[in-house]
Design goal:
Number of strands: 19
Radius of gyration: 21 Å
Largest sheet: 9 strands, mixed
Distance between the termini: 12 Å
Oligomer: single chain
Shape: globular
Helix content: 25-40%
């Protein structure tokens, strides 16, 4: 991409895993409001469940997640007890025993749990919810802490997909981000997964890390692809030390500049596609027969807090400290502080700290943003018709895209917007034009790429 376009449009904008985005949540959505929302769900509404395990064995310095490192198991076990209590508490607020299409266990790291405790967590969900036919059960897995007994427990519990954190295979880069994970460790875990029947494997890679170069990122991509994961996520490292203080341990002078980040992204993306992966949205890649690719082809790709997904459940319920739920009425986020979260649950209270109730206009704008993020284009009239909002024009938003159009980032075809091939990495900048909450000067977001 041209250097002048990088300078002009690689701005700090949201990742748009939700709309409105989390910085705009507030205290008006509390436990009482969330309880109302849960009770108002139609009993036949299919659900998606997310459980956040808010601990890791060791803190990776690049991490932007809500997590806490511990060498002792007692805090983890105590947290799990609260998480299981929350599952029961939330289930008791629902209108009926409800069906589930998708379960995702994230963190932190679920593999910080013992195999028996992981099984307890899955069993607790199965005890209060019904898994619908074909339901996906996905787990984020740290190869450094998962042994074969853990993988066997995952398989026995019905896990269908594992997401492997890698980031980079280069030892110098690993040392700089405090994540020592030799290639052989990752390879061994993937072999265990397949041997125990968990064939759907995702892999997370990262560019923009300290000491990375185009050549080293390409080497990591090639080594990762050689393990044949079904999906690869290629994330740009978000350096936000004012929000995540442990990132101050990363040597800033070793971070690539903006132009180098772009070169890494473009080279890695091109190499993945040359290796047979299909580009999905902004930063995901999948093998041609993967359901993500098929969903993208039929315009059924979605985006939620876990990124690009085929999950179309209209309600997502989050469990654990910092977990966020998405219901037809809006978003509800749990207390971030672990001790406060546990205390609330043990008092029999839903641990909601903040959220936002969404309007019809929010839903309309969310749909526009989701289609842009998923399809790299949007037909405004189609979205407006689907939402019964044919009178809306969005002329001011379209006018604000004039510079992006002139610079070849986005193409306007009447009332349809299409990202150009060069402009696709900047799709978040186009989405921002439809974000009525966004303060363009906010420093709390990461760069567009």
């Amino acid at each position: 991409m041209r250097a002048d376009l990088i300078e002009r449009y690689d701005l700090r904008v949201p990742r748009y895993t939700s709309y409105p985005t989390a910085p705009h949540f507030g205290p008006r959505v509390d436990a009482a409001r969330y309880e109302e929302w849960l009770g108002a769900l139609a009993p036949d509404t299919p659900l998606s469940l997310y459980a956040h395990v808010a601990y890791c064995a060791e803190m990776c310095w690049f991490c932007g997640c809500h997590t806490k490192a511990t060498k002792k198991y007692a805090p983890v076990a105590d947290y799990l007890d609260a998480l299981l209590a929350e599952i029961s508490l939330v289930a008791s607020k629902l209108p009926a025993r409800m069906g589930v299409r998708h379960i995702h266990f994230g963190g932190g790291s679920p593999t910080v749990l013992t195999p028996d405790d992981f099984t307890r967590m899955v069993d607790a969900m199965r005890a209060r919810f019904d898994l619908l036919p074909g339901a996906e059960v996905a787990v984020e897995l740290d190869p450094r802490t998962a042994d074969e007994a853990y993988v066997a427990a995952m398989a026995k519990a019905g896990v269908t997909r594992a997401s492997i954190g890698v980031q980079d295979f280069n030892p110098k880069v690993q040392a700089a981000i405090n994540r020592i994970q030799p290639f052989e460790v990752t390879e061994r875990v993937i072999l265990w997964l397949r041997a125990h029947g968990i064939g759907a494997v995702n892999m997370d890679l990262c560019y923009g890390l300290p000491y990375q170069t185009v050549a080293s990122v390409i080497e990591t991509v090639e080594r990762g692809a050689a393990l044949a994961p079904a999906r690869i996520a290629l994330f740009g490292y978000a350096h936000v030390p004012w929000m995540k203080t442990h990132q101050r341990l990363i040597p800033e002078d070793a971070l690539p500049d903006m132009a180098e980040r772009w070169r890494q992204y473009e080279a890695a993306s091109a190499r993945l596609q040359a290796l047979g992966y299909v580009a999905i949205g902004l930063d995901h890649f999948a093998l041609p027969d993967d359901e993500l690719v098929l969903a993208q082809k039929r315009g059924a790709l979605h985006r939620n807090f876990q990124g690009y997904t085929t999950d179309s459940a209209p309600a997502l319920i989050g469990f654990g400290a910092s977990a966020i739920g998405s219901l037809p009425q809006g978003y509800a986020a749990n207390e971030i502080a672990i001790d406060r979260y546990k205390a609330l649950v043990r008092e029999g209270r839903l641990p909601i700290a903040r959220g936002i109730e969404i309007t019809g206009e929010d839903k309309l704008r969310r749909a526009i943003i989701e289609r842009l993020m998923c399809d790299m284009g949007v037909d405004l009239d189609e979205v407006l018709a689907a939402h019964g909002a044919a009178g809306e024009s969005f002329e001011s938003e379209l006018a604000s895209l004039a510079a992006l159009e002139t610079d070849g980032i986005v193409r306007r075809e009447g009332r349809r917007l299409v990202m150009t091939e060069e402009g696709k990495p900047l799709v978040r900048a186009v989405c921002a034009a439809f974000d009525r909450y966004l303060d363009r000067g906010e420093a709390r977001h990461s760069r567009a790429v």
